[in-house]
UniProtKB/TrEMBL annotation, chain A:
Phylogenetic classification of the source organism: Eukaryota, Viridiplantae, Streptophyta, Embryophyta, Tracheophyta
Species this chain originates from: Hevea brasiliensis (Para rubber tree)
Pfam families referenced in this protein's UniProt entry, alphabetically: Beta-prop_EMC1_N, EMC1_C
Transmembrane segment boundaries: 950-973
Family statement: Belongs to the EMC1 family.
Sequence ranges assigned to domain EMC1 first beta-propeller in this UniProt record: 22-410
Protein's UniProt name: ER membrane protein complex subunit 1
Membrane topology: Single-pass type I membrane protein
Keyword Transmembrane helix: yes
TrEMBL record, chain B:
Bias kind Low complexity: ranges: 244-260
Membrane topology, as annotated: Single-pass type I membrane protein
Name under which the protein is recorded: ER membrane protein complex subunit 10
Keywords attached to this entry: Endoplasmic reticulum, Membrane, Signal, Transmembrane, Transmembrane helix
Location within or outside the cell: Endoplasmic reticulum membrane
Disordered: annotated span: 1-40, 244-268
Basic and acidic residues bias (residue ranges): 1-12
Membership in a protein family: Belongs to the EMC10 family.
Entry's Gene Ontology cellular component terms: endoplasmic reticulum membrane
UniProt-listed Pfam families: ECM10
Length: 983, 268
């Protein structure tokens, strides 16, 4: 008996342990994870016959990855740090991938099959220079293959087996800028060619085995050079002179340097405009690119130039590939409308095409930016070619035999901004027929599920159940759901492409390469900045589509003209776009909509003028009504000044129209530059909902939260402490946190953390701010919380006052009233450094909050806000314990189960976006970096809905069984009664 | 040595944070008394001017702040004993101010951002809707945020509330009633560092656990069925003797019992 009681109590106890984490079979049920690599910079094919076919690529997101050539899947991948850009890659010894990164200072070797790092060596040198990597196939020193690296102003020979530097030679002292390192095939001599200044041409001849300088010649080049220097053969270079109109051929041979000048106009009779030499390495020739066409020019043995061909519409040329003895081929890609033509030409004979294919492409991919080719031997022993092409939208495609073998949407590795859009409302209700049709299926599924829960299922059935759960069509439907879990994630990427991802399974619903964000003559270097919800229809939700506003600018500096584009989120079509005459520095969302439900936006330009959008008279009318109540602030981080502004009147001058307004400054805060520098500013999210304004604390007392949308959190640090950690001593580094009212410029709170250091990551929600920084004295990271409470409403506690209406809770609050606020603050140690912080947001703001911390390990940790409560004390009273207060500890706990990303990593994590679902308990979380991750979170668990795997069939069957049992027992009892009566 | 200086610094900053001198200048500017300070060598008197503007007009001097500049032994300088004397409005200024009141516009003030070499890098500006100021006279409240000899910001406004639909109201007296507060930065509380043994006992172990809830909150779902079972058992136990009693009685009374309540009991 005692044992039974013990067992039962044990069972009870085991079920009461709270679960933060997922079960193994819940992975992938409501989360998805996508891996990307970014725009490919360089690709090297793995040519060895053995093993699986792969290509190794390096990307602009500093990723090195090995991809499967059959399906485009990632075999392995490494994301190097954001300041460790990969310059060159190559394959050595047929088994190591060699990468040169950080401007030629770090050389690493990775094992080709599994991507493990084999060795790493640091190349030291005095100055910056172009970095070059040369992996000769035949150069051997004592049975060791040598890698020749030019980096940091010196030439290094590195052993490919263990990465040791065999010899090195510095060129730094002579201010020598290297252009090429050449190793003629089969010889032990290396030529290092380059320039001193822009006119002196130098050739160094060196012994590759020991680094001995054999010969050094130099010759003056009149007229200088500009742009790329193309290596035509192992002893001939071609470049343009500084005017860009003359081609210079340099021939160096046995200590002689010959220059030959040829005017471009002599070669081609028409005017070219600005021409540039392409960096591609073609055997015996080079390519000259102008704005309209491309010219291929062959260099003959005597150094003469001959025009081989002139082709329009060429966009990309690959390097030459030697595929059989002495034969070299290269690929060029031409565009015609939506088709691309891939031509593989033999280097020696121009007129014979080895391959000519036309491929139809999706028109949302833009132009071909890069092409890499690789050969294979067909079954009939002829040579086939496959081409890897990189498109304008950063996607990567493999072409083979005139078809797209696979395609990777690697633009998604560089998400700039993300927002959400609702899906269309389901127009006709769910038809009964449809349900009945698969009623049998439905029942079967549920019976399987029951088997699963009762642990009766066989292993295959378990697999079936799992597959069924993952593929549930319910979650990837294209209509709005009752719980608000299904949405469209609209993301803007660096390439100027906008994607819509379905939150259910992460698939791309549509994608759009914005024409306004593509390179053009008027807009040389467009970049996307932000996405805003332009129109969210509520009244016309059935027949109007929501749209988003994409804001970009033409150059990276802030006074460049802006670009706007409006995109329909259901169809993915661009509704309109405009290139603006003014710049865009700040975009302010106004809380008003016009009759078309377009949100009013105020765009501030570099001259502090405000421009109202949408440009229609109705919007101006709405705007004029609230004219005097619109305030905003600007942060000039470099000058250490924060200013507040209001609107004045319509613009006067060249851009004057009724949608443009002059502004004036009403307040300013000037930080002394010698002691403070602004590093972080954070505000509350505009759409955040706060449910309770008051906080009931333990002793039945009430504190009113100071909830203002106009609070600005600013962190400044000592100027010395702006560098990395270690750049300042604890005495000379400090960090000051400010809470500023952005309407009046009042500083509500100001606090100095001595001995603390940036970088600072902060999040602001309701009436609290949490920020993360480094404490130099304690040698640890810290997180602090500030909560701000309103004292002016504190005397509203009297019930009688509330009953009699003598309270000031309903009166409008003015920022100009004198503030009576108190702040509470507390600091805790935290183990990790942080990449991003966000907070969960729910529909009504009732559910308790969790902080989402993007850790240095590229994972997301969910931390209950209760751990960051400034009222925590070491020994909480009984009342405080009942309230749920956690006893104070010096550091914040990291519970392994509370990682939102469970076992996955979001490589290169940059941002966390949280969106409320319609269900109050649940928030949707989207994490982006090189990878994308999406999940649903329920900080207080799903108290308002049944779990997904709740078995309705079991419930139904139980009810049916109970009803049957009731009837059976009733009949039995009736019978018994009758029998009893007859007795 | 290091420790010593650190502790001194803490002491100083503590002093500084408790320092905010709350000075109420006398209601009328003309009666502001000025005392001469000559007690300390390291202290020097300093003056800087307040300037104001009506709406978009240019800034003109409107008053003078005077304070003592205290030089600390570690080299820092702070202001203490701030006094303020405000110039009375001229007739033209009164007119301007009335215009602001009518238009519900901004009355702006500014201070130099450095008190030693005004205006420093730039002026710090603050403004308030003119309608917030008039009461009996014109009530104003300055909060000057200092960092050494630099003025970071000045917060200017009414000392009390300024309810939103701002009422147009002319002041009875055209004289300023000024309140001035000087504020320096607060020191953040240090992160508590617990001793190792304390950590071992209750620190870490407890922190990892989820927050404790009361017994009832945790186990109600088990307690309620348990209670029901117990209640059921009790009622059954209560029925048992009754049934026995009825059983005995039934043997005697026979058919009369069958329409009585006992079959119901038996059926249950």
């Amino acid at each position: 008996m005692a044992i039974r009681v013990f067992l039962i109590s044990l069972l009870f106890l085991s079920t009461t342990i709270t679960t933060f984490s997922l079960y193994e079979d819940q992975v992938g049920l409501m989360d998805w994870h996508q891996q990307y690599i970014g725009k490919v910079k360089d690709a090297v094919f793995h040519t060895q016959k053995t093993g699986r076919k792969r290509v190794v690529v390096s990307t602009e997101e500093n990723v090195i990855a090995s991809l499967d050539l059959r399906h485009g899947e990632i075999f392995w991948r490494h994301v190097l740090g954001s300041n460790d850009a990969i310059d060159r890659i190559d394959i050595a010894l047929g088994k190591y991938v060699i990468t040169l990164s950080s401007e030629g200072s770090i050389l690493r070797a990775w094992n080709l099959p599994d991507g493990q790092m084999v060795w790493e060596s640091f190349l030291k040198g005095p100055n910056h220079s172009k970095s070059l990597l040369l992996v000769p196939t035949s150069l051997k020193v004592d049975k060791d293959n040598v890698i020749i690296v030019f980096g940091k102003g010196g030439l290094h020979a590195v052993s490919s087996i263990h990465g040791e530097i065999l010899w090195q030679k510095d060129f730094a002292a002579e201010s020598f800028e290297v252009q090429h390192v050449i190793q003629p095939l089969g010889s032990d001599i290396i030529y290092v060619v380059g320039f001193v200044g822009s006119s002196q041409f130098n050739v160094y001849q060196m012994n590759a085995k020991n680094g001995e300088l054999l010969k050094h010649e130099s010759a003056a080049l009149s007229g200088g050079f500009s742009g790329e220097v193309s290596l035509v053969s192992s002893n001939t270079l071609v470049m343009l002179d500084s005017t860009g109109s003359t081609l210079i051929t340099v021939n160096f041979h046995n200590g002689e340097i010959n220059f030959q000048k040829t005017d471009i106009s002599d070669l081609i009779k028409e005017s070219l405009g600005m021409a540039t030499i392409l960096p591609s390495k073609l055997a015996g020739m080079f390519a000259l690119k102008t704005t309209t066409f491309m010219i291929f020019i062959r260099v003959t043995d005597e150094g003469k130039l001959e025009v081989v061909d002139k082709i329009n519409h060429v966009t990309a040329v690959s390097d030459a590939l030697s595929f059989s003895e002495g034969q070299q081929a290269f690929a060029l890609v031409e565009h015609y409308n939506n088709d691309i033509y891939l031509t593989v030409k033999l280097g020696q004979e121009w007129n014979s095409d080895l391959l000519k294919e036309s491929i139809k492409l999706d028109d949302q991919r833009g132009l071909v930016h890069k092409v890499f080719i690789n050969n294979y031997i067909r079954t009939d022993r002829s040579h086939g070619f496959r081409a890897l092409i990189v498109m304008e939208d950063h996607s990567l495609l493999l072409l083979q035999q005139g078809e797209i073998v696979w395609c990777r949407e690697d633009g998604l590795a560089s998400v700039i901004d993300a927002t959400t859009s609702e899906l269309p409302v389901e127009k006709e209700g769910v038809s009964v027929a449809k349900v009945e049709e698969n009623l049998f299926e439905w029942l079967k599924g549920h019976i399987l599920k029951i088997k699963g829960t009762l642990m009766l299922a066989s292993p295959e059935e378990v697999v079936n159940i799992q597959a069924m759960r993952l593929k549930s069509s319910e979650k990837s439907k294209m209509t709005r759901d009752h719980n608000g879990f299904r949405k469209l994630l609209i993301v803007l990427t660096k390439s100027g492409k906008v994607f819509a991802l379905h939150t259910g399974d992460g698939r791309i619903v549509w994608s759009l390469l914005l024409n306004s964000l593509r390179k053009s003559e008027t807009c040389e270097n467009p970049t996307g900045l932000n996405l805003y919800q332009w129109r969210v229809p509520h009244h016309h939700a059935m027949d109007e589509n929501p749209s988003v506003l994409v804001v970009g600018r033409c150059r990276s500096n802030s006074d460049a003209p802006g670009v706007l584009s409006f995109v329909d989120t259901y169809t993915g079509k661009e509704l309109g776009s405009s290139s603006l005459v003014h710049s865009v520095v700040q975009v302010i969302l106004l809380p008003f909509t016009d009759s078309n439900e377009q949100r009013l936006h105020l765009l501030i330009d570099a001259k502090q003028r405000a421009h109202l959008y949408p440009k229609n008279p109705e919007a101006v009318g709405i705007f004029q009504r609230e004219f005097s109540n619109i305030y905003w602030y600007s942060v000039e981080a470099d000058d250490g000044i924060i200013k507040g502004h209001v609107l004045k009147d319509n613009c006067i001058g060249e851009v004057s129209d009724e949608y443009c307004f002059e502004t004036k400054e009403i307040w300013s805060i000037v930080f002394p530059l010698e002691s403070e520098k602004i590093i972080t500013t954070v505000t509350r999210k505009l759409n955040e909902v706060v449910h309770t304004q008051a906080k009931v604390i333990a002793d039945q007392d009430v504190m009113y939260k100071y909830i203002s949308k106009n609070l600005l959190f600013v962190v400044t640090v000592a100027p010395k402490a702006t560098g990395g950690i270690g750049s300042a001593t604890p005495e000379e580094s400090w960090l000051v946190a400010y809470l500023i009212d952005s309407v009046t410029g009042r500083i509500l709170h100001r606090m100095t953390h001595h001995g603390s250091h940036g970088p600072v990551h902060a999040v602001f929600s309701e009436n609290w701010v949490v920020y993360h920084y480094f404490n130099l004295r304690a040698h640890r990271y810290e997180m602090s919380v500030i909560e701000i409470f309103d004292q002016s409403r504190a005397d509203n506690k009297d019930v009688w006052k509330l009953v009699l209406g003598k309270h000031n809770l309903t009166s409008p609050i003015s920022s100009y009233s004198r503030l009576e606020v108190i702040t509470k603050s507390q600091s805790y140690f935290f183990t990790h450094s942080v990449k991003a912080i966000a907070v969960t947001s729910t529909a009504k703001g009732i559910t308790s909050k969790q902080l989402l911390i993007g850790t240095v390990g590229d994972q997301v940790l969910a931390l209950d806000k209760r751990f960051l409560d400034p009222r925590r004390s070491i020994n909480p009273t009984q009342a405080e314990k009942e309230e749920g207060m956690i006893p104070l500890t010096d550091s914040l706990p990291i519970i392994p189960q509370s990682y939102v990303t469970h076992s996955l990593k979001v490589e290169g994590l940059r941002g966390i976006v949280t969106v409320p679902a319609k269900l109050e308990s649940t928030a949707l979380v989207f994490v982006y970096g090189v990878d994308l991750f999406f999940t649903r979170l329920a900080p207080s668990r799903t108290y308002d809905s049944l779990t997904e795997d709740f078995s309705y069939a079991l419930l139904l069957m139980t009810i049916v069984a109970l009803v049957v049992a009731i009837f059976v027992t009733w009949i039995l009892s009736e019978k018994k009664e009758l029998r009893d009566k007859w007795r | 040595m290091m420790k010593n200086s650190a502790s001194k610094e803490r002491l100083l900053s503590h002093q500084r944070s408790s320092d905010p001198a709350y000075i109420r200048s006398s209601p009328t500017p003309t009666t502001t008394t000025r005392r001469k300070f000559s007690d300390s060598d390291s202290d020097s008197k300093i003056q800087f001017s307040l300037e104001h503007a009506f709406g978009d007009s240019d800034f003109v001097p409107a008053g003078t702040f005077s304070a003592r500049l205290k030089t600390w032994s570690h080299g820092g300088q702070t202001l203490t004993k701030l006094r303020f004397s405000r110039n009375a409005f001229t007739q033209a200024e009164k007119g301007n101010f009335e215009k602001l009141l009518i238009g519900d516009e901004f009355y702006r003030i500014r201070l130099p951002s450095n008190v030693l070499s005004p205006p420093g890098r730039d002026y710090v500006v603050s403004s308030v809707k003119a309608r917030c100021l008039p009461r009996e006279g014109l009530d104003e409240h300055f909060v000057i945020h200092m960092e050494g000899v630099n003025i970071l910001a000045v917060n200017y406004g009414a000392p009390g509330a300024c309810p939103y639909p701002r009422q147009m109201k002319l002041p009875a007296k055209w004289s300023f009633n000024s309140h001035t507060v000087l504020k320096n930065s607060e020191q953040a509380p240090r992160t508590p560092v617990f001793a190792e043994e304390q950590l071992g006992e209750n620190g870490e172990g407890e922190a990892v656990k989820p927050p404790e809830r009361s017994f009832w909150a945790k186990y109600w779902m088990y307690l309620i069925p348990l209670g029901l079972i117990v209640m059921n058992a009790i009622t059954q136990a209560m029925n048992m003797p009754e049934e026995q009693a009825t059983g005995q009685a039934g043997a005697q009374q026979g058919a009369a019992v069958q329409r009585g309540p006992s079959p119901a009991v038996r059926r249950r």
